[in-house]
Every structure is written in structure tokens, then in C-alpha cells.
Design goal:
The complex is a heterodimer of chains A (about 170) and B (about 240).
Chain A: H1 2-8, H2 17-29, E1 33-35, E2 47-49, H3 51-62, H4 74-84, H5 90-114, H6 120-146
Antiparallel strand pairs in A: 1-2
Helix pairs in contact in A: 5-6
Chain B: E1 5-14, E2 21-31, E3 36-40, H1 47-54, E4 62-67, E5 70-71, H2 77-87, E6 88-92, H3 103-113, H4 118-131, H5 147-159, E7 165-169, H6 177-191, E8 196-201, H7 204-207, E9 212-217, E10 220-224, H8 232-240
Helix pairs in contact in B: 3-4, 3-5, 4-5, 5-6
Classes of the chains: A mainly alpha (about 170), B alpha/beta (about 240).
Chain lengths: ~170, ~240
């Protein structure tokens, strides 16, 4: 099950085996799956979905995920703080984040490029990340235009260190 | 090996006096064969000017442009025109196919203009169209093709005749995202068969198909992506979260 899940999601989402067992036990406890004794193979336990499980699955598939954004977006906060820090070139800061996000996008696109066009599951997983990351770049681009007329405040010695984002933090949720 | 395209301190100024506009400001860029480079920047950053100068459709105000090691300023106007036909292919957002010509005729046109025999041009065009999976549409007129098919024909026209430099200006702008991706796959495949490719775009998804992304702002290259890390780095990030 672990192999199947990971291959179907382009191995982008690793699955914890222990989590699979505990989840199956809970599903069985709640009557959503049951042990399939007729088709058991050796020591491997098999499960099948119950009618209640099928109804639960159908309802889950149609339930919208949580779309309300987190109360504080780290990247937005960083840019807002940068506007208040004397000597910070906010356009350079936006560019450093833009470059980093696009480098991550290049890696997802490489996964798609290296797979066949017929690997639909992998393309869907990679697309989900790419569209999310593209949204971040579009926000950075829009911020760049909005802040275009803004003159950087006078430099201060404390902020002359070249800016380099901490890897992965600003693109993880 | 000599890069297929080199720009050395290329500047372009339009107008003069109070209406003077500095479209490009000392741009340095080298693109190797087998490499796809995306130039990303906002509207008015100089992207299209960079492309037209790289493709010899326009002359820089100062600086040097070399295609396959040949300085474009050092050759005659007719030699530059020959280089444009033989060495450089263009792909535009709106395809720029001639509506009165069939798909095959659109692809053979640059070769025939260059003096190639009709038979040789037809064979070369069919080979390029085959690579782009549009050879079956050879006898259709552009308005009988979908947007994605038209762009494939346009790419076939751009790579036909073994050109070494492929220049594309927002090539997926008129297409939906899946058809746009198919076009980028083809451009990427074409460059990895020995062509140097430059795509200018404001779209991050499009740019992410490139081996390298350079960022243009107010006519200057201000940054570029570093060498690509492998996909395993994404797996490692996933395991941490």
C-alpha cells in the first residue's frame, strides 16, 4: 500500500508505514473497513471497504478542504517588516525570494519533464505545488510593482549584510 | 565550445532628450547549445528588446551580439539576413503563421526563401513536423488547426533546417496551461537536441521549464537561478515536514 501510494503521487509525498497501520485500525474500529479473511495472502492482512466506508469516502471527496489562509503568512510578514527596516532594499529582498521560489518550481517541473506526459497522477501532484508556488511569485511580482515608487530608507550598517533567504522556510506552509 | 548566443554589454536606447528610454543597459548573457534559458521580467523590463536584438531583428545602441561566434555588427546586412534565415528560429505568442499557406508550406517557406530546392525543403519540413507530431496536419490551413497545433507548426518552422538558436516570445500566452506545457516540453526537447533556446516571459511556470532563469529589471539582468538541485531535495523537504 505504501509503495502504491508513493508511486501514484510521484514519490513527492512520503508515507509513514506506522501511520498506515494505526489509520487502518481506526477505520476498522469505526466500521469503515473490515478484515478480508477470504482473500488473505500468507501473513499479510487484507482489508476491504464496508458500505459505510464507501459512503464516508464519497462524502470526504466532496468536502472542501480548509481554504482559510493561516493568520500570518511568513513571507508577507517579512516584506512588511522590511518596509520598516532602514536601509533595506525591498526590491532586492523580493527578488531573492522570487529566485528561491522559482528554483523550487524548476525542481517540480523537472519531475514532470522527466516523466512521461501519460503519468497523470504525478502531473497532478506536481501541478498542485507549481500553481501554489506560482501564486507566491505573482504576489512578489505584484508587490514589486506596488512598491516601485518607494525610495529605500538610508542604509544602516546593521543591514548591509547581503540578503539570502533561509532555504525552504518561505515556501513551506 | 563557443556559445550559440553571446551578448556583451548590450545597451539599447530609444528616442533622445527628455523622451529617451533606456530599454537595455549593459546586458551580458551567454547561451550554450543544449541549454534553454528563460528571461523573466515585468512589462517594460526590456525582455522583447533583448529577444529582437539577439535575433538580429534590431541593432543595439552599443555592445556586441555574437551568434555562433560571429559578431553581427561585423557582417553585411545581407549576411545578417542570411544568418536570420539559416541560424535563428522565432516563435511568437500569436504564432505568426501565414493564413494563406498550408501548414507544410509555412514550414518550408524559410528554407525556400533561402534557396533550398522544393523537394529538400519539403523533406526537412516533414522531419521537423514529425518531431512535433503535426506531420499529419501538413495540408491544413492555420485556421483549420487548434491553438496548440498552430504553435507546434510554428515551432517546426522555427527549428527546421537545423537552426542553432531558437528565440521565443511568450510562446504559450495564447494557450491554456496544459497546451502551454506541451509547447514548453517541445521547446525543451528541441534545445536538448543541440539548439540554444531563449524564452522571454513574465510567467513563473513557463520560466520554470528552463535550465536557467535570468531576471531582467529596468533593462538590466539583476539575478539568475543557480544550478538545478535534483528532485530528491524535494523528497527530503517532504520528510522533514
Amino acid at each position: 500500500m505504501q509503495n502504491e501510494f508513493e508511486s501514484r503521487t510521484g514519490e513527492v509525498w512520503p508515507l509513514n508505514v506506522g501511520q498506515v497501520y494505526t489509520t487502518l485500525q481506526r477505520l476498522e474500529r469505526d466500521g469503515l473497513v473490515e478484515t478480508d479473511t477470504e482473500n488473505a495472502e500468507g501473513s499479510q492482512k487484507r482489508y476491504r471497504m464496508t458500505p459505510a466506508g464507501a459512503r464516508e469516502l464519497a462524502a470526504w471527496l466532496r468536502t472542501p478542504p480548509e481554504l482559510v489562509p493561516p493568520p500570518r503568512d511568513e513571507l508577507v510578514i517579512k516584506v512588511l517588516v522590511a518596509l520598516e527596516v532602514p536601509g533595506t532594499d525591498v526590491h532586492e529582498l523580493l527578488q531573492a525570494h522570487r529566485r528561491h521560489v522559482i528554483e523550487v518550481m524548476q525542481r517540480y517541473t523537472r519531475i514532470k519533464a522527466d516523466s512521461g506526459e501519460d503519468d497523470v497522477a504525478l502531473a497532478l501532484v506536481a501541478d498542485a505545488e507549481l500553481f501554489r508556488l506560482e501564486g507566491i511569485v505573482r504576489w512578489l511580482d505584484a508587490a514589486d510593482v506596488r512598491l516601485r515608487g518607494l525610495q529605500p530608507a538610508a542604509p544602516s550598517p546593521a543591514t548591509e549584510t547581503p540578503f539570502e533567504p533561509t532555504r525552504a522556510k518561505e515556501v513551506s506552509q | 565550445m563557443t556559445p550559440a548566443l553571446e551578448l556583451h554589454e548590450v545597451s539599447k536606447v530609444y528616442g533622445s532628450g527628455p523622451s529617451e528610454v533606456q530599454a537595455l543597459d549593459e546586458v551580458d548573457l551567454a547561451v550554450e547549445r543544449d541549454e534553454l534559458v528563460a528571461v523573466k521580467g515585468p512589462s517594460g523590463s526590456g525582455k522583447s528588446t533583448l529577444l529582437t536584438i539577439a535575433g538580429s531583428l534590431e541593432q543595439p545602441t552599443s555592445g556586441q551580439v555574437l551568434v555562433d561566434g560571429v559578431d553581427l555588427a561585423a557582417v553585411s546586412r545581407s549576411d545578417r539576413a542570411r544568418m536570420r534565415r539559416r541560424s535563428i528560429g522565432y516563435v511568437f505568442q500569436d504564432f505568426n503563421l501565414l493564413p494563406g499557406l498550408k501548414a507544410l508550406e509555412n514550414v518550408t517557406l524559410p528554407l525556400e526563401l533561402d534557396g533550398m530546392s522544393a523537394r529538400k525543403a519539403r523533406n526537412a519540413a516533414l522531419e521537423a513536423m514529425g518531431e512535433l507530431d503535426v506531420a499529419d496536419h501538413r495540408d491544413r490551413f492555420p485556421d483549420e488547426l487548434s491553438g496548440g497545433e498552430r504553435q507546434r507548426v510554428a515551432i517546426a518552422r522555427a527549428i527546421v533546417g537545423k537552426r542553432g538558436l531558437l528565440l521565443a516570445d511568450e510562446p504559450t500566452g495564447a494557450l491554456d496551461s496544459v497546451n502551454g506545457e506541451a509547447v514548453m516540453r517541445l521547446l525543451r526537447a528541441a534545445t536538448h537536441r543541440g539548439v540554444a533556446g531563449v524564452v522571454v516571459t513574465h510567467e513563473a511556470q513557463l520560466a520554470s521549464w528552463a535550465d536557467r532563469v535570468v531576471f531582467l529589471r529596468d533593462g538590466r539582468i539583476v539575478d539568475q537561478t543557480s544550478a538545478l538541485a535534483g528532485p530528491e531535495s524535494l523528497l527530503a523537504a517532504g520528510e522533514r515536514s
